[in-house]
Amino acid sequence: MNAILNFIKNERKNIMAGMTVGIVITFLFTGIDSQIEAILLNLAYGVLVGLSIALGCGAISRRMFRSENWLDNPVRRYISAVLLVSAYILMDVILLNIIWFKITQDVNPAKLFQSNFFLIVLLIEFVTGLLIYLIVLSRYFALNLNSFYLQSQKQTQELAKYRFETLKNQVNPHFLFNSLNVLSGMIYKDPERADEFVIRLSNIYRYVLDVQEEDVVELRREMVFTEDYLQLLQLRFGEKFSYQITVTGEGFVVPMALQILMENALKHNAMQSDSALRISIVRKDDYLVVRNNRNNLISQAPSTGLGLENIRSRYMHLSDKQVIVNSTVDWFEVQIPILNLSPKR
Q1: What domains can you pick out in the chain, each with its CATH number?
Q2: How far apart are CA 113 and CA 169, in angstroms?
Q3: Which residues lie below 8 Å from residue 17, measured CB to CB, with a gap of 6+?
Q4: Both ends of the chain: CA-CA distance in Å?
Q5: Who contacts 68 (Cβ-Cβ below 8 Å, separation ≥6)?
Q6: Counting beta carbons within 10 angstroms of the beta carbon of residue 326, is it exposed (0 to 12), middle (13 to 18) or buried (19 or more)?
Q7: What is the pLDDT of residue 85?
Q8: What is the pTM for the complete model shown?
């Protein structure tokens, strides 16, 4: 009963419109009789015709478009809905009129179909009901397609913003400045390490430029980039920093997500010889688990959360899998999904 009441509540506008049209058409054909009984019968007939068409069409539409992914093939669903509704309206007006005239005037159904007037009434009721449904359905499609378009535009803009923020964060002047400072100290003291440093630094910036327009990258490419980045940090901080990577297998991840997590670890933790910052990256099923120990800074600016929001938002456009964050007083951990899909450009 509650389901029926909810359905009627949701379809009340269409029901009222159908009943109004049914009543109007009925009195256009029959005229307004002076007898109250005739007026009430015509009124009841119009209400029944409009109500049955509205309820049936509403039920068909709700079943056809109840799936959240109906926009995957809207044309097919639209045509299917129109064909089903056409068949329903035709059957509805035929059966309703047969029953109505049998009850109210005891007219044999065979005689009804021999009457040209009856056939004209059926045709008008069918065409009018179908036209009203097409108007309602077209309005529904227009509103939902417009909403879908606006949502898609918003998501595209958000994705472009996060791409820009990611690129801006990766190629930031501080990182380059610090790297060049480390390099200048190596050139004369340790030329071989300086050469390795330059190669890894160039690999990092080449990777950043290569993937800035990509939604996902192969896991192995991201891990090569991460290894280069962590090696630079190792050369820069020495004993104050250490890392461990244990990642195998195939898959795809959003580009430079790991670098954002590395930057967050550096930003929020102190590094000392007797209390090094330790970062580990391992694969656990379909997730990359990135964990660092906590060495909280004495004076620390509050976290904005933009880095994690960046990663979450980019994954939201690609998968239902969620970015998982776990935290204790001793360590901080982020799990990012490994996706099974092709890279998009």
Answers
A1: 2-149 (no CATH), 171-337 (3.30.565)
A2: 78
A3: 50, 54, 132, 136
A4: 51
A5: none
A6: exposed
A7: 85
A8: 0.53
